[in-house]
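User: structure tokens for this one?
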Amino acid sequence: MFRSRALTGLLAGTLLTSLVACGGTGAASTASGGGDSKVVTVYSADGLADWYKTRFEAFTKQTGTKVQLVEAGSGEVVSRLQKEKSNPQADVVITLPPFIQKASADKLLQDYQVPGSDQVKGPKAADYVTVIDNYLSFIGNPSKGALPRTFDDLLDSRFKGKIQYSTPGQAGDGTAVLLLLQHLLGKQGALDYLKRLEANNVGPSASTGKLQPKVSKGEIYVANGDVQMNLTSIANDKSAFQVFFPATADGKRSTVALPYVMGLGAGAPNKDGGEKLMTYLLSPEAQQTVSGDAFGIPARSDVKPTDANFASVQKATTGVEIWQPDWNAVLASLDADVAAYNKAVQG
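Assistant:
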């Protein structure tokens, strides 16, 4: 469910830094914090590279300002902000809940009311706003037998050593797995279930994206993911897996809304450029391309795509109940919930 690192005991990770749109310089700010007005630095959870490429190029063409992209797991994005608090480098931050709420609580963001925010129904506050809607999903390799229909099916012995899900508290999508099970089974029921699932679980993974090629190759049969990332991988990488949503015993399928959320970095070296980029990314022009470029769902309720990718997302989620968590409440109990999870699966 989100993409990397714990709020308690953060993992050290290597950030992949890439310059998008006409090259760029190695860093967007100097050691003294002075920003380059012609470069905007974005720290983002991975998964949106295709959308970023076209949108950042369009932004550069319109404004003359280049965009430097630093991608990492959703939790690691916030970890980097914390480490750089005395010398901020990021202008725009894009990550998943509850990590964006963590960044807000730790004063790593600053207020900016992005034009068009009134059209956004997803998570938003004075210092952040949803930019793309998305949902937790699971993926399975159909060549390895019928996809599991229910959560109980995942406990079957045929999946021994063939299931892997990203680690709650470290990965956003993995945290979402824990949250969904808590929602469906209660907190203790979720822990009991995940303890039983350990017999089939390969082991920890700080990155959800790294599970996709393992499922596609048949190294493992089932993993967690998210709709946007998984459908993009099927379309662009020809991945040999299918998206599915396990049901509870009563046959009901559910998922967690898992949006990408953006905020303006506290002490942003290029505050003006960051505000302009955020304004552009939430504009109807950019929002209209979210599904076509990256299988995302526009955050703006007044933008209605009609492309084939949007139809694919709608088809994939038909009949699936979408749960919208209270992310501030999730953040308040996350440390304790992750500690309880670790104790349950390691005990």
